[in-house]
Write the structure tokens for this entry.
Amino acid sequence: MMAAPQAPPVAHSLRQTGDNILATARAAHERLQDPLHGGEPSTAIHDLRVALKRWQALLRLLQGPIGDEAMVLRHEARLLAREFGRSRDAQSVLDALADIAKQRDAGTPAMSQRTEATITRRLQETREASETAQLNAEVHQHLRDGLARASTCLASWPLERISFEDSVTALARSYRRARRRLPREWDDTNPEAIHDFRKAIVAFRYQLDLIAPLWPKVWRAFIDEVQKLRMQLGKSNDLVALSLLTQPNQPLAHWRSRLTPPIESRRRFHLERARLLSGRVFAESPRSFRKRIEALAKAAADSG
């Protein structure tokens, strides 16, 4: 039996969501500044970047009712995330290397353990150098200032005036935005287009959390599908980043002939899975998607 829907989210949930996101970002930043007790810097950087992406997604949702200030803060959050991006990029290629190492394609020769260990060590050195270079006082101050400004703005915004219909309109717009970026020919789509599609998926994914309480089991299943799509696209992007490091005069140029076949094979695998997932996620039109949200909201209100 399907679980009974809960009441629709109200305006204060937007404020609570924003407060929680910024608190997560501050906590990750504190861990970065405490190397003895904060754990691996790469983990803290990952958590920080996720929080900043969630903040950007919320700001995109609020841009209509709030206006230019939300747009300016979203741009600033994107720049802050980019400042911490080099270390994450280095970790991404490590993830891509692990990805191709575990594939079992008979047509693609496997890397030797020695080669994999050598390349892994080279990439780890690159990541550590990036972390050292980017975690300077100026970057930390930029982040502190940005988070303080974000908290001040969030506290001053009249979120109580934002109706549920406003949120639905913005969410349906994000659905349409992502759907329009859906590749028509996956085999011929360039990596930049795949990257743009993934960015739209990321924003849409985090915005979905705002409506999940409408009917948790229904929306959680849909969110899981969107998350799987995001992960497949992300793995494809990581493999592209690894491939770029095999170009002439790049750190992995020596292993280009060994890395290129498994990179291409694994990327085709992830894009095929992404194609199947996107067919399910974007099966309905933006208008139908909006009607589904409204219908579940009405059912939740009637049951409350």
